[in-house]
Amino acid sequence: MASAVNTGSLNMPKMLRHLSHRTSQVRDLVFVRDAIKRKEVMTTKDTNKDGTRTDALSGPAVSFGYETNSSAQQDAGTNLAYHVSSPELILPGLKAIQSPITSRSGNLERTGHRITGACTFYIPSLSYIKSLPEFSETTQFDELETYDKLLDMERIIIGDRDSASGYTFDSSTSSSTMSVNASSTNNKRLTVKNTLGESASASTGFHPSAHEIDRFQFRIKRSAAAGTSTAYINIIKLVPVVNNYNTNMQWEPTSGNGAPLPTSEEYVTIDVPFNVKVGSTTLIYIGGTGYEYTLNYEYPSSSENQETIREITGYRNSNSDEAYLSNMLIGVQNTGDTTVTVTIDDKNSILYKEAEWRVESIKDYRDEYMEVKAVRVRGDRASRRRAYG
User: Fold this and answer.
1) What are the residue ranges spanned by the domains of the chain?
2) Strand 323-334 with 231-242, pairing
3) pLDDT tens column, 183-199
């Protein structure tokens, strides 16, 4: 007999807000989708076997089964396949309940020791996700797909400035705001309270948190538009101290001014990786548009060649010189003719160790919520991350 009980509906976003004050199982995730690269095809053939392709194929283009290194727009043509621009998506601000969770499951294999995990995420409905900032503004996101990535904060290395493991704002002011004058640049420095990395003052010589740094997330906003003022994020920097020299590992716009801050006086969430090598690129999405940044490293001596933040903070030469993380820095450039005020959310400026979950299956309960099963391969143990940088 069919049940006559009406189970009602579930307001998932409201439940997430209430539960977030009571349990850490409510997670703040970063949605990541890998870039979709162009297909490598041929529409011509080498009739004379002389190495030149001049004759058109009588049938459709032949695909070689692999991709090029570009995800940019491309029209169909000679030896070219049609392709719509499909860069990597990196969209913070997706909340979910994570339960149950197996965070660490070790397997001994012929190739070594691998750590895996599995969990279930309960996420608001697709219609709600598509109304979130950035998700609603980019044309690339239509739905959650298998093999998409969900980045979670496994461990917060540096949290809000009120915590013991937090930071203080630069000595010139304890305020989280800064003024950026017309046609100039200003920086907000976040100084780490506790040394992270190799320190001569530490008896063990190493602070375990340093090699766990994966990403830097912060929230930032600007004052309302005035005149022709346009504020751009022109630098995101970690400042390690190596041999008593301030060095700079920083994300800078690959070209142009970088990502513009919205004039709506609303916070935007920025999330960039620091577990990648110098020369890597990432995208910051503002208003549905991705702005490319390149990771650079500046060091006074050309003899040093550390390529990742783990290598830098784990570095110690034969003289036992210090190498540790000193502070973080966020720079904003104003190209307009009037001063703008920029505010950093001091409760949400975080250096953290990531947990990368890959979506394996999705159950969509339509207007209610989605049940997403995800798996994870951690790779090396934390002790090996430290050892190998």
Assistant:
1) 156-353
2) antiparallel
3) 888 888 887 766 565 55
